[in-house]
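Aggregate trends can hide what the representation actually does to any particular protein. The sequence in question and its structure tokens are set out directly beneath this paragraph.
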Amino acid sequence: MVHLIPFLSTLLQLIAALLALRLTRLARGSWGWLLLALAMLLMALRRGMAGMENLANPRPMPASELVSLLISIFMVAGMVGVGHLLRAGRRAELALLEAEGKSKAEGERMTLLDAAAREAQAREGANQKAAELGRFLELVIDAASMWISTLDAEGRVVIWNRGAEEISGYAREEVQGRSDFWAWLYPDPEIRARMASEVASLLRGGNQTKGEETTLHRKDGTLRKVTWYVCPIYGRDGQTGGTLAVGHDVTELRGTQEDLQRTRTIQNLILDNSAMGIALVRNRSFQWMNARGAEILGLSLQEAQGSPTRNVYPDDASYEAFAKAAYPVMAKGGYWDTRWRLRKPSGNLFWCRLVGKALDPEHVEEGGVWLIEDITTKMAVESALAESEERFRGAFEGTQDALILLTPKGIFDCNHQALRLFGLEDKSEILQRSLKDFCPSRQPGGEGSEEGLGHHLQSALVGEFVHFQGGSEDPEVPDGRNPRHGPRGYFAHVPA
């Protein structure tokens, strides 16, 4: 019996190895369990070899064999316990997997329910938004200042907004559901027939009408000009279910355009027939010029258009000097009024009066309007007048005769001899005074000085040459005015 102990240990270790191999399946083929089973098989082999040696050479059984037997028993028991533990873990794992599966299924179900709830909520929100949009569009359509109306497939009014009421004069209650309102707006049968034909064409799927202008009769009998945009309305089935008409009242606009065109015509007549040249200058180039301006500058209208202003100046110095003098005044919003010498394409120099004003004082060089006047002849006349004036003044002051210039209101000039005659020092003592102030009340012949002077002055004003002999009985008056040797006088008319 003692010799059977090694073989019993071998059997138990083989059982433990088989149990380890079986647990490999529960452990999902872990290579650790395979190595453990292989180790147990080798131990069984070793115990079997030890038993065979003991049978071949009988000897007393050492105590280690009993320890090996106990180890083998514990190994089998341990494998059985580990097997129970792994199976319990497997059952727990399966239960966990089942629970996870159920949880996942429940999650998917909740996700579907949540998606359905969201979809329902979105549908409800969309319906609410659609309702709000519908109310908004209704308000917009009714508040629009333009004509907006719709007709159904039978030509009856469905929508008639406030703009349509204001333009036509007919309230929506008067036209709602009616198709005979065309006769109110277009009494002319031909126009009404054409409008009805166009609407019928749209209902049959015709092209939209855009920009057509008609004249309709309001309820109060006044006429309004309206431009139209008309298009068909399609239903869900793609069929034409009615028409939409949008109209703009352009009555005032057309009147304004006519007034503007009339104003432009008048302006063009004024500009083209002005006695003065008129030019629009931008960046020191002629952008526009009337015929008179081109004539003054010696250019054709084609040559003037777009040509630089430098071409009409005698030289660069004159060109630059003009800008330096004119721009500071124009930059303050004022008019620059000057006389400047210019040059024609032929090379001839001439004098012009130039009056300019900037379109925008902050950017003078970007645009200005200029008036151009040829003053060459005027300058020559003024020069001749100045020369004549100088000669007259020399003769006036240089003569030995006393000369007085006067009007019915009084004396306005005299020469030095006149001052000397009356014993005066300065012209301020005689100017704006009457000649009678320097005469006695009566002349030697008995005539009153005031009446006589008035008579002589009136005769001179009608062109007569008047001669008189004057004097004074006042001993205080200088000898030159004494009646015994009184002065001779002449009244002569000086043309204005």
